[in-house]
Design goal:
Number of domains: 1
Shape: globular
Order of helices and strands: EEEHEEEEEHEEH
Distance between the termini: 39 Å
Number of strands: 10
Largest sheet: 5 strands, mixed
């Protein structure tokens, strides 16, 4: 599967609260836990192809800016202090957003018992890091969150989220994703 990156940009929070946020001591138990990645796949929408993906990307980025206003820590950077404690520098630099397209149709992907069976290199191409090497010790310039929207040749879509596990666990990642979806639909975030 070939995936071509069409755009890479930082999306800053609409509202930022500058400062430092010390992480819970529990985050220190797993210093070297890698960034986690989750994927959502969508079949082609029922509207005409045309500018549908372009309009969707605009809405996704606008929704991110607004949702990050409530999750402004995600727009910062992880810092390891001299005393080995980790904190988030709420500098408002933003999260990485990647727009891409694939040369295959969603239906061409391999299924087994209803699940995708994709090689690691294909999964990696659907959740890229724009050149950031995400190994311990975490680079101080690395975003805490990477989002990639990939359009398939059939009009289907994959949205991936790659997050720093010291800052988010699975539950908080899905909470952010749900909140972002609410904002994209024009709703208020239901659980702050």
């Amino acid at each position: 599967m070939k995936v071509e990156v069409e755009e890479i940009c930082l999306v800053p929070p609409e509202i930022n609260k500058p400062g430092k946020a010390l992480l819970s001591p529990l985050a220190h138990f797993a210093w070297e836990v890698h960034y986690r990645t989750r994927f959502l796949f969508f079949e082609r929408p029922s509207v005409k192809e045309g500018a549908c993906f372009d309009a969707l990307v605009v809405r996704l980025k606008a929704g991110l800016r607004k949702a990050l206003g409530s999750f402004y820590l995600l727009g910062g950077r992880l810092v390891v202090r001299e005393d080995d404690l980790m904190e988030v520098d709420c500098n408002g630099d933003g999260i990485m957003f990647i727009r891409a397209s694939s040369d295959v149709a969603l239906g061409d992907l391999s299924y087994s018992d209803g699940d995708f069976q994709l090689p690691d290199e294909d999964l990696s191409s659907l959740a890229q890091t724009a050149g950031h090497v995400l190994n311990w010790p975490w680079p101080s310039d690395a975003p805490l969150l990477f989002i990639q929207a990939t359009r398939f040749s059939c009009g289907g879509l994959c949205i991936s989220i790659k997050f720093n596990h010291q800052v988010m666990d699975g539950t908080s990642a899905w909470h952010f994703w749900k909140s972002w979806a609410e904002v994209c639909r024009g709703q208020e975030i239901s659980v702050l």
